Each structure stands twice: as C-alpha cells, then as structure tokens.
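Researcher: Next sequence.
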Amino acid sequence: MNRALSLFDSFAKGKKTEHTLRNNCVIYTRVSTKEQADNNMSLGTQRKTCEQHANKVGLQINGYFGGTYESAKTDERREFNKMLAFVKKSKERIAYIIVYSVDRFSRSGANAMYIAAQLKKQGIIVYSVTQPTDASTASGTLQQNIQFIFSEYDNQLRREKCMDGVKEKLLIGIWCAPPPLGYDIVKREGRKEFVINKKGKLIGKGFLWKAEGISNEGVRLRLADHGLKLSNQRVSDFLRNPFYCGLIVHNALEGKVVEGIQEKVVSKEVFLKVNGILSNRHQGYNLKPENDIVPLKRFLKCDNCGNYLRAYKAYKNQEYYYKCNTPGCKCNKRADSLHEAFKELLAGYTLDVNEDYRQLLKIQTIATYNQLTEESREQEKEVELQLAEIDKKIRRLRDRHATEEIDREMYEEYKAKFQEERVAIAEKLAQGGNRVSNLEKCVDEIINYASKLTTTWSLGGYAEKQKLQFSIFPEGILYNRKNDECRTPRVNEVFRQMADLVQVLGEKENGNNTFYCTVPAKVDCMPSLSNILVSDILAVETFIDRYKEQIKALY
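Model: Next structure:
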C-alpha cells in the first residue's frame, strides 16, 4: 500500500519537516547614541553576556553584528539590515539571533513583531538573554510580542518627555534643532547662538531681490552668480521660512509663532512683503507705496559701495533726490537729472530703423541664435542618452535587490551613487534645455519692443518701468558721484547686439567700409555677435509675453 502511494509523491504539497537540530547563531548588539558607542557603554557587556549564553547552551557563533550606535525607532538600520541579510542567506543555516534584551533588537513595536514572525518562518528565532522566552511556541511568541510592544511604549514615553523639554525651550525663543541654511552655531559663555554666515548674507540679498519684484528663478540665478547655488525648491523654501526674520515655528508649538533669539537675516516687513501678506493687512506693519516719480529706486546703485540708492523728497524745494544711505558715502543726486541721463542711455538701445533694417536685424538674430544653439542641441541629445542609461542602471539595481541577488547595504550604496549621478545629468540637461518656443515671432516682438524703449519707459508706471529697466540692464546701473556719470555693469546681450548691428549697418550705408559684413553673417565673421546669450533672449521673451497687454495699453 505504502509503495503504491509513493507513486503520488510528486503531487504532495508542503515541505518536509526537518527534525535535524541546528546550533548556529549570530550576536547583535547596539547602543542608541554616538556618545555611548564612543565610550563603549554596555556594548562590551552585551557581547560578553550573549557569548556566555551561546557557549552555555552549545551554540556555534557564526557572526557578530551591530557593535555601534543605531536608533531602534525604525528598522532602516545599516548593521541591522546587514545582519538580517546574513541570517537569511548564510550557507550554515542560522537558528538564533542572540540579543542582550528585546529592545536591543527593535523598539518599533508592530514592525518588530512582523520581522520576528518572518524570521520564524525561515526557522530563525530571536532570543533575548535577559528576557528569555521560547519563541518557537505560541505562548513564548506571545510573551516576546508583549515585550516588543512595551519597548515601543517606553520609547514613546521617552519621546514625550523629550518633546516637553523641546517645547519649553522653543517657547522662550531657543531653537533646538540644526539651523537652516545661512547660520553657524557659536557657543558664547556656555550658550548656543545662531549667527549669520556668508551664505546667510546672500540669502538676505535674495529676500531683497524678491521684494523688488524679481522672480524666484531670477533670485536663484543671481545667488548662483554670487556663488550660492540652490535649486528652485530650496529658494522657495527659504523665502517662506520665518526663521530668517527672527521667528520660530515648530510642530511642538501647536500652531503658535514665537519670537526667537537668533540673529535676523531680514526684517519682518521685508519677509511679509516677499510673501504677499502686507497688502492684505490693515494694521501692524506699513510700507510706503511705490512712487512712479522715482522709478530708479531699487535699480540705481552707488558706484562707490554698490548699495541701492534710496529716494526721498527734500523739504526745502520739494524736489525728489536719490541718495546712498551707506555711512560716509555722500552720493546724492536730483531725481530729474538722473532720469534724463537714464533716458539718454536708453535711447542708445532704442532701434530707430526702417523696415529694411528691421528685416536684416531679424535675419541676423535668427541665424546667430540657430548657429549658437546647434552645438548645444547635439550635446543635449548626448545628455538624454546618458540619462536613459542611468535610469536603466537604477531599474536593474532595483530588480537585483528584489530577487535578493544583492543585499540591502549594497543596494542603498549603489542607489545613492546612481541617483547622485542622475541629478547631475538632469541638471546638465535642464541647463541646456531652454528653447525659444517660436523664434521668428519672438524676434519680431523683441525688435518691435526695442523700437519703443524710451516711449514705453516714459509712459509706464513704477512696476512697468522697473521691469523694463531690469530687462535691459539685468544688474542695474551704477552712478558715480565724483565723475557724475552712469555705468552699466551688464546689458542684455539681445539689445546690445542689435544696437551694435544697427551701428555697423549705418556706417556701411554712410560709406565707411572698414568693417565689411554680409547678412546673415556667421558668428566668427561678426565678433560683436559671438557672445549672444540664449538666456537673455528667453528673458526678454518671457517679459514681453507677461506684459504684452500693459505695453499695448500705453499706445
């Protein structure tokens, strides 16, 4: 009969129960803080006690794990995961994970119970030397689970006590966490203080630029020019963080806002203006409305110290002036005089040309743009291929980890490496990925706009004038009191090159053929056009698109 049934063995379900006893184990030890690890507090005791138990019951120790500081609040721990990977894949099948106490294994409660249950399915028992239970039985498993739950409960009690202390400090204005970007921690007379560093001063400038109407992207680019490179998200985050204006907000404060003792990067007035709050307030802080009579305010800078000139109205003659507020700097000039000087400067970039010249300008600008972006388009294709390849590597790594071909430690290590490479490639692609959507239409609008610069500025309000000023002169204008003259650090290349080309064509028409050029010219044939910046064309396109209706309304 038994022989007849053996013919059906291939259809049997389940696995044969192995009655052979295994005596292999590993030892896992840990402490919660770096200070405890550095002082070897309890690590030696844990290991010694675990070894004594293993030797007493005749277990073979196949490895030691931990021996350092790892928080047990979550199970995303390097040594812990390394140990789990080892016991699951070891050729000498592991029967026990020996720990000093249950809370050394984990304090995550339900998740710890789940991990222990999964290990038990593979024949691996978690054994606590100081809290011995036979987890191979139902009653022993229950006792161990209760110990896991109590460990989590104890952890939560400790957290509550800690948060009570944190809340007390926050309520008196002391920040209890690492400070945001732009601050250094300095200890003075036993007290911890947050002081502004070089990055913090640049962030302060970022707030002022934003308050002047510059976009987040414009702020990001200006900060990058000054050596502080941030992502769009980081810029948005610091502009909305009240820590920089001396306030503290924290989950532990339960919706309260507290005055902090940290050094302020900007005033509360500037912070509220940046976040668009002051316009909705009827009390509290008040800012003076923008004055159409002094549009060069926050645009004109002192050539001596580099600070923006302020505007004021003189009491005696009731005339407006621009003045530098830097102590010892005596830069002061009547507003109407500087306005006339600015209009003369602007006239140099206003295109007063006939239709034939307009067509020549259009042909040359389009030809130059296409020539300068041809190489970048090829580079962009190469970068896209690199991005696809790194994505392929990340997918392959994920698959290898899912099939347990590699352990979690190796997976995390290479995942971080690949993601870092991907971010670098993506940033490179983003830098070269800007394209004018409709080049011919864009150039037509730029030429039309450039032909009315002086009129547009004269008829516009404060906001329109400010936008026009920064679209032509992105870094503002410097006024030198000693020489009574204005200097332009940088002119938008689109307007500068068009003005240069008009001058060249005018000289040719007047019989001055010392500089010969055909239109469209190659960039190497026409040095004055070799440095056109695609970003400047995009900046003008965006400005015209946003303010098209306002510009039309002026005529």
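Model: Residues 167 and 253 are 6 Å apart (CA to CA). The domain at 17-160 is CATH 3.40.50.1390 (Rossmann fold).
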